[in-house]
């Protein structure tokens, strides 16, 4: 018996003892089925404000979510994208670099995009040179 079993955002698999870390951003209020990253067993689990309502109960697939990160019994990390969730992104449409914009949310012109020589008047962007 490990102390991890009594904590809430850490789900220690009762079957294979893999430690599944449930990231607080997506699991803070959660009710559903979680797939263990170690043995792929599915567990019913409920969290209210980051506190579990009871120990994991065996359930049938399909699972709702996978843990954010997992660690095996001998402390090897499991980061296989087929077994753990991708980290939550601040912007779901983030592509790896900023999205060029020329207008703000309020419709005002902003300098948020690379400029080509034909967009310039002298050294000023056309949007600002009136
Ligand atoms: Zn397991």
Note down, in words, how this protein is organized.
- With 130 residues, this protein is mainly β.
- It has two domains: 3-78, no CATH class; 100-130, no CATH class.
- 3% of the residues lie in helices and 31% in strands.
- It contains one helix and twelve strands, in the order ββαββββββββββ.
- The strands form four sheets. It has a four-stranded antiparallel β-sheet, with no helix packed on it. Strands 3, 4, 5 and 6 form a four-stranded antiparallel β-sheet that branches.
- A hairpin with a 6-residue loop joins strand 1 (10-12) and strand 2.
- The chain is elongated and about 70 Å long.
- The protein starts with 9 loop residues before the first strand and ends in a 5-residue tail after the last strand.
- Bound molecules: zinc ion.
- Zinc ion (ZN) binds at residues 13, 15-16, 18, 36, 38-39, 41.
Q: What attributes does this structure have?
A:
binds zinc ion; four-stranded antiparallel beta sheet; mainly beta; elongated
Strand order of the largest sheet: 1-2-7-8
Largest sheet: 4 strands, antiparallel
Please tell me what the overall shape is: elongated
Bound molecules: zinc ion
Helix percent band:
under 10%
C-alpha-based Rg, rounded: 23 Å
* Cα separation of the termini: 73 Å
Question: What's the number of extended β-strand segments?
Answer: 12
**Can you write the helix and strand succession as a string?**
EEHEEEEEEEEEE
> How confident overall, as mean pLDDT?
86
> Structurally, how many domains make up the residues?
2
Poorly predicted regions are none
Specify the structural class. mainly beta
Alpha plus pi helix count: 1
Query: In percent, how much strand structure appears in the residues?
Result: 25-35%
């Amino acid at each position: 018996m490990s102390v991890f079993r009594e904590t809430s955002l850490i789900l220690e698999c009762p079957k294979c003892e893999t430690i599944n870390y449930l990231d607080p951003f997506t699991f803070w209020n959660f009710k559903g089925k979680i797939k263990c990253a170690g043995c792929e067993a599915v567990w019913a689990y409920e969290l209210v404000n980051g506190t579990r309502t009871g120990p994991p109960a065996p359930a049938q697939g399909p699972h709702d979510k996978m843990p954010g990160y997992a660690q095996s019994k001998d402390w090897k990390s499991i980061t296989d994208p087929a077994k753990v969730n991708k980290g939550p992104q601040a912007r779901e449409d983030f592509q790896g670099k900023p999205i060029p914009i020329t207008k703000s949310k309020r419709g005002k012109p902003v300098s948020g995009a690379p400029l080509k020589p034909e967009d310039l008047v002298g050294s000023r962007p056309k949007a600002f040179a009136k």
